[in-house]
Design a protein that fits this description.
The protein is of the alpha/beta class and about 200 residues long. The protein has five helices and six strands; from the N terminus they run βαβαβαβββαα. It has a single domain, classed as Maf protein (Alpha-Beta Complex), CATH 3.90.950.
């Protein structure tokens, strides 16, 4: 019998990336979109792992079952690691993905190609009632393009060119992204841990 697990997000893109693997690991995965009375969680930690852990703990307590939460974002070297944990709120609340991409590209307008290094970072936190919380991390290095391109993905995918690629993450087919991304790496670490138990 599958173990019930709540993915602590309403983000449809994240749910799609997580649900397939979780099913293969023996979890019956629901998201906060599937449940009522989801707790309001303020993501105010100073690290991705801190935010992920905060979300997983709150959701596990609210529903009395296992919870998996992710916090992820983009770190740009030329911006001192920004937007970092503020990736989803870069430039203020209420901005669209396209707005945030345009703002970031404007901040890098005078930065040459050689200095546009960046990385996506993902932290996953897994909490089961009565057990020690666990965290897992994935890092996906690349660089920031000069203009958005592609129609796949979400967030900063249209302006992020992964190392080893000549196209943006939004131009990479979704099934390939699910194999190579920062979230894929964190999930792979989680899967190894689940299988070793």
């Amino acid at each position: 019998m599958a173990t019930r697990l709540v993915i602590a997000t309403k983000n449809a893109g994240k749910v799609a990336e997580l649900r397939e693997l979780l099913g293969a690991l023996g979890f019956d995965a629901l998201s906060l979109r599937d449940l009522e009375d989801a707790p309001e969680i303020v993501e105010d930690a100073d690290s991705f792992s801190g935010n992920a852990l905060k979300k997983a703990l709150a959701v596990a307590a609210a529903y009395g079952c296992a919870a998996l939460a992710d916090d992820s974002g983009l770190e740009v070297d030329a911006l001192g690691g920004a937007p970092g944990v503020l990736s989803a709120r870069y430039g203020g609340e209420g901005r669209s993905d396209a707005d945030r991409n345009a703002l970031l590209l404007e901040a890098l307008r005078d930065v040459p190609a050689a200095a546009r290094a960046a990385r996506f970072r993902c932290a996953l936190a897994f909490v089961e009632p009565g057990a020690e919380a666990r965290t897992f991390e994935g890092v996906f290095p690349g660089r920031i393009a000069f203009a958005p391109s592609g129609r796949h993905g979400f967030g900063y995918d249209p302006i992020f060119v992964p190392d080893g690629y000549r196209v943006s993450l939004a131009e990479i087919p979704p099934d390939e992204k699910r194999r190579v991304s920062h979230r894929a790496q964190a999930l792979a670490a989680f899967a190894r841990w689940v299988e070793s138990r």
